[in-house]
Amino acid sequence: MHYFTITRSVVFALLIINKAGGLIFNRTFAPGLQKLDSNDYLILAGTFHGIHAISRSINPAPPEPQTQPPATHPRRPITTGIESLESSHFRLTCYQTATGVKFLLFTSPEQPNTEVVVRRCYEIFGDFVMKNPFYNLEMPVRVEKFERALAGYLVRP
Amino acid sequence: MSVYSFYIFDRHTECIYTKRWTEHHAPPTSRPSATGALSNGAADVPVATRRAMKLEDDAKLIFGTIFSLRRMVRQLGGADDQFLSYRTGEYKLHYFETPTQLKLIMLTDMRVGNMRTVLYQIWATLYVEYVVKSPLAPTEHPRGVGVANELFEGGLERFIESMFSPQP
């Protein structure tokens, strides 16, 4: 009997990295990635934080021609780091907020609209973590409402 | 739709070929005082040497980045997972590795699609034909010896031009 494997678009995991490169949140929502222990995730977050910074400095694109001359000294062109990474088994979408917090979303390669999904995760983070008066900034996230809202949004029943 | 640069690294982690299609712009100094030519207090280093060091540094940074990303992808996706490409807000980096651990890396602008077949073709029809099969090129290429021969360079230029030339 032949079983056809249906590759469904699915979200595997979400990692949140703080401004300094430390992992503050890590949750797996569906199987598909290798099982790593919490130490491995910490190392991975730190490594990615460094790679993100390097990917900004190796930018080869020529600067856009400026329409008016800069007022005082030429401003450094604003470069962004890695926004999306493709591998054969997963896609990683990285959203960096204005405060330096990075949201890493691991999905299957067919998952559409990963940008929308990661923005929604950021909104949920803002609503349940940032607005929580007991949450210390840049510390690991241990907010139950946040985890429930995230699971409700990301896990397909 | 343009290509910015192309690198080849061999299995000894050395950069054996570099090709740039853009002038690399040096980032401006953070000091607002406009004392003209020299920056960062490096008064004695001539511009040409600094540019050469910058190119070398870029190649090393790129190698470090793809080495770490490759390791990360293997850790997350399993031993058979392969890192393919990444995209930032300004450029896209495409990666292709041969079974002999030769790494071909191409940086293009963001709108370019999957370049895996292009990199495979560069390897199969240009590198293998003009470098590996060249009777004058050594088997190993320390510091890039034997790779940048005329046939390979010319073939690469023509290939890239045919792919990325503006459509009439």
Structure description:
The complex is a heterodimer of chains A (157) and B (168). Chain A is 31% helix and 20% strand. With 157 residues, chain A is of the alpha+beta class. The two termini of chain A are 27 Å apart. The model of chain A has no long low-confidence stretch (mean pLDDT 88). The longest helix of chain B has 31 residues. Chain B has 168 residues and is of the alpha+beta class. In chain B, strands 2-1-5-4-3 form a five-stranded antiparallel β-sheet.
When the domains of chain B are counted, the total is: 1
Give the SSE order of chain B as H and E letters.
EEHEEEHH
CATH architecture of chain B: 2-Layer Sandwich
Largest sheet of chain A: 5 strands, antiparallel
Kindly estimate the percentage of residues of chain A that lie in beta strands according to DSSP.
15-25%
Give the biggest beta sheet of chain B: 5 strands, antiparallel
Radius of gyration of chain B: 18 Å
Q: How many β-strands of chain B, per DSSP?
A: 5
Mean pLDDT of chain B: 84
Estimated structural class of chain B: alpha+beta
Low-confidence stretches of chain B: 26-39
General form of chain A = globular
**Cα distance, first to last residue of chain A?**
27 Å
DSSP helix fraction of chain B = 25-40%
What oligomeric state best describes the polypeptide chains here?
A: heterodimer
Instruction: Count the DSSP helices of chain A.
Output: 3
Order of strands in the sheet with most strands of chain B: 2-1-5-4-3
